[in-house]
């Protein structure tokens, strides 16, 4: 079956959420005269997100956008860190840090090459406005913006992967999920999608290793988006 | 209230459906050795579309993508024109003529200018894959692709306009519908959106006039997208 479209996980795969959120938190701290371990704060913010999504996936919480989940976690972390008296507008602005994540160095050029041969879309748990604002700021050249929000099913729910193929009007195997996270790729594979693992060893900061991947577990293993473009024959205009 | 995003009607407003579909039908006729009044055929194809959508809107038909509605109408028109024996793949390819519509001369430059100051999206009854394929072929620089398909409500259902604002996370008045069709704009206005009428006098071919619009009925009246960019102060990088 011919590959026709590529759907990209975003946080960690396309953008460096950790470095970007630390940058935003540091600026927030300077503006408000508070000093904390912002790297740890960023890691805790991110760590709160899978369990919060699971509360939505299991029905314990009603459907909520990631923006709202990020805000729930942020309010808790600020309280726990003893940071109070911050005007609500400033907390809301800090929460939108996730709209202002920076791409990895190869991202824009890699997507531009891949776009010549494939339809390229997001397939993220981030909400549509978050993904749209991020793309506009970072110059990500998506053909369209697809989010779990459109299906009201967060990945790894099967509905997100199949819903993406349905919107693009391609068979599941004609669509590849591109992601740095084996769990996401395994769920995509189980739904019938093609899979492309891209290593992002710096996602959790220096000194961590990229997740282990079994040989042959996924259809493609790439160093970065430029390597993926080479493997898929998408480098020439 | 500040304007933050622009949602564009597509067929007729962004692209010249009539000229493009006549071009596709003429090529189809030549390939299959049939000659008909292709301008009339294109007009009949388009004329079949509002009643077909109404059958979905009233619940007489289940939800169907525009691709499927276009195909229903096309099959009827081919039969009525006595054109038979065409392989199904060729009819499907002809049906995708609506994915290959050409932009008006000012469209790409106008959108590029407007994109500097606003989030720009489609808000079309065309399905996501149709809009995505069209944008890729024609170079339409959307920030995201929003379709009635995402809400399972065709315009002028209120859910389509409000759903677009909700996905973009803006208040209805912060979002302007840009359209060449007063009925679409009136429904958007009734849902609380800002409205921008753009005249497309050639939509129905030469010799037709653009629809009449009352003075003050809409927030902006523009000659084309470049004029709209000037009126909205979006011309400079």
UniProtKB/TrEMBL annotation, chains A, B:
<dbReference type="InterPro" id="IPR023214">
    <property type="entry name" value="HAD_sf"/>
</dbReference>
<comment type="similarity">
    <text>Belongs to the HAD-like hydrolase superfamily. S-2-haloalkanoic acid dehalogenase family.</text>
</comment>
<dbReference type="InterPro" id="IPR036412">
    <property type="entry name" value="HAD-like_sf"/>
</dbReference>
<dbReference type="Pfam" id="PF00702">
    <property type="entry name" value="Hydrolase"/>
</dbReference>
<protein>
    <submittedName>
        <fullName>Haloacid dehalogenase</fullName>
    </submittedName>
</protein>
<dbReference type="GO" id="GO:0019120">
    <property type="term" value="F:hydrolase activity, acting on acid halide bonds, in C-halide compounds"/>
</dbReference>
<keyword id="KW-0378">Hydrolase</keyword>
<dbReference type="InterPro" id="IPR023198">
    <property type="entry name" value="PGP-like_dom2"/>
</dbReference>
<dbReference type="InterPro" id="IPR006439">
    <property type="entry name" value="HAD-SF_hydro_IA"/>
</dbReference>
<dbReference type="InterPro" id="IPR006328">
    <property type="entry name" value="2-HAD"/>
</dbReference>
<dbReference type="InterPro" id="IPR051540">
    <property type="entry name" value="S-2-haloacid_dehalogenase"/>
</dbReference>
